UniProtKB/TrEMBL annotation:
Residues 1-37 form the signal peptide. Pfam families: Fil_haemagg, TPS. This is Filamentous hemagglutinin-like protein. InterPro entries: FhaB/CdiA-like_TPS, Filamentous_hemagglutn_rpt, Pectin_lyas_fold, Pectin_lyase_fold/virulence. Residues 56-176 form the Filamentous haemagglutinin FhaB/tRNA nuclease CdiA-like TPS domain. It comes from Xanthomonas phaseoli pv. syngonii LMG 9055. SMART domains: Haemagg_act. It comes from the Bacteria. SUPFAM superfamilies: Pectin lyase-like (SSF51126). Keywords: Signal.
Amino acid sequence: MDNEAVGVRGYLAEQSKRALALLLCCTVTWTSFPAWAQLAPTANAGRQTPGQQVAANGVPVVDIVAPNARGISHNRYSNFNVGPNGLILNNSAQISKTELGGYVAGNNNLQRSGAASLILNEVTSASSRLQGYTEIAGAKAQLVIANPNGISCDGCGFLNTSRVTLTTGTPNLGSDGALNGFSITGGALSIGRNGLDAFNVDRLDLLSRQLSVDGSIWTRALVAAAGAGRVNYDGMLLDVLPGADGGLPAIGIDVAQLGGMYAERIRLIATEAGVGVVSRGTLAAQSGDLQIDSAGQVSLGGTTVARDAVNVRATGALDQRGVLGSQQGNVSLRAASMTLAGDLVAAGALDAQAGGVVTHVGRSSAGSIRLFGSELNADGSLHAAGALDLGAGGLLRSGGVAYGGAGANLRAAQIALSGTLQSGAAIALNATAIDALGTLDAATALQINGNGNVRLAGLAQAGQGAGVQAGGRLELQGQMIAADALALNAASIDIAQRAAVSAGNDLDLRSAGAVNNAGSAYAGRDLRLQAASVSTAGSLSAARDAQLAVAGELVNRGTVVAGNALSADAAQLESRGDIGSQRGDATLRSRGNLRLSGNTVAGGALALDAASGAQVWGP
């Protein structure tokens, strides 16, 4: 190809560029008015007045104003709306290609300054309706739409921007021109049924006094903050401001049943005292954490899930009735009081604590579970692969089914157990008063400590040893079984007629007061009983030795028998039933009277010792 041909081609290429630019400019001029019916720059805004274009296909184009030294292009409008055909914010001094409008002519406002890093659109009059996509032409930039009169998004979306902020606050710019945050005193931000698409946006901030969500929100990182106050650019409350109308909204953040928030990470913040968060829809943090902070109540009736941690903080009540869970992390709940009536799932720890009453009537499954309140009602299903820890400052009621794979610990001022408590390891109950009508089933040790009275009316069993310590009365009305040793220590001990106490190893009964036995007590090895007085109409037996040391009176109307040796020592000893040893010696000693009117037998020697005389009659 000769030089002349090359020159002609270059000339034509240059003319083509100019023709394209001229065509675009002409198109802007011919179709500008209808497209601009939805936008109106603020009159007398001076340098903050943006320019106007229309793309070849009719999409409106805003030529943003030149940015300041901090890279912020501050544009002011009296009306700012986005229709279904969308809106282009022109951030390029050169011709640029867009998804919404094809090629767009360059923005002459940027010829000297270059592109903006943040485009601030401040609306001063009517509320804004966003019903289509807003695209930044040219260099990617952060985008802010601020309208104190309110913003509604119903099918809105954002293209070629790294961060989007929709706020009903007034922008606060520093003396250096930086965007420091917003002052929010009112205004509602609503997401309609057609939702908000910020799927390719790194971060989405929704900052208003009230936020309602009826559709789906998609983004990478989401921060939604509601409440009157001065907030920084990240939506964190700096100080509280009075609301414009003087009253409080009923709800700060409201996610309807068909609404949803889908992001890698989600944070919801309700900063106004007494105003909370309600979600009947879906909150899904798909690859990170989900955090909810509320100065009021929190109500979660839909699906609230995260891949990593879930943290909920409420100064008011927490009401959870849907699905709440973490796929790989922990779930932490803090509130003034809480009702957990849904499904709770955590791969790690589930930790729920309240200053008031905690009511659990749902189903919870986690690596470990901890529930604590001033009062705890655990009537649902609790399954912890690791430790289960239930606590209350006052009454702890457990009427459901609870399991702790690595141990179960209940502690309260008062424990009332009517359900089932199981553990793959040990179980420990610590309280002032304990009333267990249900089942206690420990794979290893079972320990029950009560500073006051303890009643066991159900089944209590341990795969290893077990012990009961009661500062008051110990009532055994059901079955207590230990595969190893069993020790009972109380101010007084009552074993009811149908009750059974059994130890695979030694059985120790100790009381500073009376021991009354109408049921059965069995030791797989040795039985040791020490008390102020003993009255037994049931059975006391040991596979090996039995030792009874009674400071006062010992009265037997049932059976007292040892497989090997028997030793009974009392201030007064009376046996109207069977007493003796099967293979070894039997020694009955009284520091007062000794009366034997039943069967008295010994496999070895029988020794009777009475300081005040012995009376023996019977078969």
